[in-house]
C-alpha cells in the first residue's frame, strides 16, 4: 500500500502542475450544466415573451369576415396589413403566420356550411411554433363557439355532438413532465466519467513513455500491479471530481433556473444526486482502466488523446438516444456495462421508482468489467514492450 500511495501522490502532483490540462479537465464536466442553462434561458424567455404579448397576425381578406376579425382582436391578436406574397413573406421569416380569408367565406358562413380559411406557416421554424399554435387555438375556439351557437339556434343542445366525455387521469408528476427536457443528463454524466480522468490516464502511460520517464519508474522495486493501481487511483480521483462537478452543476442549474416558463417545475434533489453518483462509481473504474489500456498501445500523447477523445463519446451515445427514443427496461439491458446505469439514471431523473435489484445487477456487471480491464492493464504493464512505441 505504501508503494501505491507514493505512485498515487506522484501522479496527482504531476497533474496539478500542468495548469492548462487541469483547466480543460475541470471545464469539460461543466459543459452539460452550461448547455442546459443556455437552453432553458433562451427557450424559456422566448416562450414566455411570445405567449404574453399580442400576436401579430397579417390577414388577407379581413373585410370578408369582420366578426372573425373582431374575435381575433379580442383574443390578443394584432391585425396587420396583408403582405403582397404571403408565402414568400413567411418563408423569409418576416412573419410567423399569415391568415387568408377567401371572398366566398361570407357566403359559406351565412349558409351554415364550413367556411374555409387558410393559414400560411412554416412549422419547421422553431421560433414560429408559439405564434402558429396561438393562431390555431384562436381559430379553433372561434369555430367551436360559432358551432355551439348554430346548434342552440336550432334548438339543439351543443352537447349532442359530443359522443364521449373523456376524463383524463394523468399520472405524470411535474418532475416526469420536465424530464423530457433533461433526458440528456445521463449522456453528460457518462461523458464526465470518460473525460474527467482521461488526461491523467494518457499522461501516466503514453505521456511518460514519450518523455522517457516511464522506464526509470518501472525499475523501482514496486511491483507492476502496484504501479497500475497507483496510476489508476490517481485517474479515479480526477474522474470522481469531474462527476461531482457535473452533478453539482446540474443541481444548481435545475434549482435556480425559472423552469416554470415551460409549464413544469424541474428540480433535482440531493438524494437523486447521491443515487446517480453511486450508480456512476462502477463506470468510473471501467473508464479509467479502459483508458489506461488504450493509452498503452498508442505511440504518443497526441495519438492517445485522439483515440480517447473519440472513445468518450461512444459509451455516452445510448444516453443521447434515450432522450429521443422510448426504451423499456428489461433484465438483459442491465447486463450491458454502462447502458444499464444510464437507464436507471434516466428513471431517477424522472422521479420514478426504480428496481433496486436491477440497479445492483447493472452496477455489478459494470464493476466486474472494470476489474477485468484492470487485470488486463496489469498484464500489459508486466510486459517490457510497454516501454517502446508500438
Short description:
This protein is mainly α.
How would you explain this protein's 3D organization?
- The protein is mostly helical.
- It folds into two domains: 2-41 and 175-387, no CATH class; 53-158, 3-Layer(aba) Sandwich (abc type-2 transporter like fold), CATH 3.40.1710.
- Helix content is 64%, strand content 5%.
- The chain contains 18 helices and four strands.
- A four-stranded mixed β-sheet has the order 2-1-3-4.
- α4 links the parallel β1 (55-60) and β2.
- α12 packs antiparallel against α13 and α13 runs antiparallel to α17.
- The mean pLDDT is 79.
Please specify the SSE layout and strand pairing.
Layout: H1 2-17, H2 19-27, H3 31-52, E1 55-60, H4 66-74, E2 77-80, H5 86-91, E3 97-100, H6 105-110, E4 118-121, H7 129-153, H8 174-182, H9 185-196, H10 198-211, H11 214-218, H12 224-256, H13 270-296, H14 301-311, H15 317-322, H16 331-334, H17 339-349, H18 356-381
Parallel strand pairs: 1-2, 1-3
Antiparallel strand pairs: 3-4
Please tally the helical runs, counting DSSP H or I stretches of 4 or more residues: 18
Percent in strands: under 5%
The overall strand count is 4
How far apart are the first and last residues' alpha carbons, in Å?
31 Å
Radius of gyration: 30 Å
Write down the oligomeric state.
Answer: single chain
- The mean pLDDT is 79
Order of helices and strands: HHHEHEHEHEHHHHHHHHHHHH
Query: What is the share of helical residues?
Result: 55-70%
What is the domain tally? 2
How would the global form be characterised?
A: elongated
Q: The biggest beta sheet, please?
A: 4 strands, mixed
Structural class, by secondary structure, is mainly alpha
Amino acid at each position: 500500500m505504501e508503494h501505491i500511495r507514493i505512485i498515487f501522490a506522484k501522479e496527482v502532483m504531476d497533474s496539478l502542475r500542468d495548469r492548462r490540462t487541469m483547466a480543460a479537465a475541470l471545464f469539460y464536466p461543466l459543459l452539460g450544466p452550461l448547455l442546459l442553462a443556455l437552453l432553458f434561458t433562451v427557450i424559456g424567455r422566448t416562450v414566455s415573451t411570445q405567449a404574453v404579448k399580442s400576436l401579430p397576425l397579417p390577414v388577407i381578406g379581413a373585410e370578408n369576415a369582420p366578426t372573425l376579425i373582431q374575435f381575433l382582436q379580442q383574443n390578443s391578436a394584432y391585425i396587420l396589413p396583408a403582405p403582397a406574397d404571403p408565402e414568400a413573406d413567411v418563408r423569409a421569416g418576416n412573419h410567423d403566420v399569415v391568415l387568408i380569408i377567401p371572398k366566398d367565406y361570407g357566403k359559406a358562413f351565412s349558409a351554415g356550411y364550413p367556411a374555409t380559411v387558410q393559414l400560411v406557416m412554416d412549422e419547421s421554424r422553431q421560433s414560429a411554433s408559439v405564434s402558429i399554435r396561438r393562431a390555431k387555438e384562436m381559430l379553433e375556439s372561434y369555430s367551436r363557439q360559432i358551432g355551439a351557437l348554430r346548434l342552440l339556434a336550432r334548438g339543439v343542445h351543443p352537447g349532442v355532438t359530443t359522443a364521449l366525455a373523456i376524463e383524463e387521469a394523468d399520472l405524470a408528476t411535474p418532475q416526469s413532465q420536465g424530464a423530457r427536457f433533461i433526458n440528456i443528463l445521463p449522456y453528460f454524466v457518462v461523458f464526465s466519467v470518460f473525460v474527467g480522468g482521461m488526461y491523467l490516464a494518457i499522461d501516466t502511460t503514453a505521456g511518460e513513455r514519450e518523455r522517457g520517464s516511464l522506464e526509470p519508474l518501472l525499475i523501482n522495486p514496486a511491483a507492476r500491479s502496484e504501479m497500475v493501481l497507483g496510476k489508476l487511483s490517481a485517474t479515479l480521483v480526477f474522474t470522481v471530481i469531474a462527476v461531482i462537478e457535473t452533478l453539482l452543476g446540474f443541481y444548481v442549474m435545475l434549482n435556480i433556473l425559472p423552469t416554470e416558463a415551460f409549464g413544469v417545475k424541474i428540480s433535482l434533489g440531493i438524494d437523486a444526486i447521491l443515487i446517480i453518483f453511486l450508480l456512476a462509481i462502477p463506470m468510473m473504474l471501467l473508464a479509467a482502466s479502459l483508458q489506461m489500456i488504450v493509452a498503452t498501445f498508442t505511440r504518443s500523447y497526441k495519438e492517445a488523446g485522439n483515440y480517447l477523445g473519440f472513445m468518450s463519446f461512444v459509451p455516452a451515445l445510448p444516453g443521447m438516444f434515450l432522450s429521443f427514443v422510448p426504451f423499456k427496461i428489461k433484465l438483459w439491458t442491465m447486463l450491458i456495462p454502462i447502458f444499464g446505469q444510464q437507464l436507471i439514471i434516466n428513471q431517477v431523473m424522472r422521479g420514478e421508482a426504480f428496481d433496486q435489484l436491477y440497479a445492483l445487477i447493472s452496477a455489478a456487471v459494470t464493476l466486474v468489467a472494470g476489474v477485468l480491464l484492470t487485470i488486463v492493464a496489469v498484464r500489459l504493464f508486466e510486459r517490457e514492450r510497454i516501454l517502446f512505441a508500438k
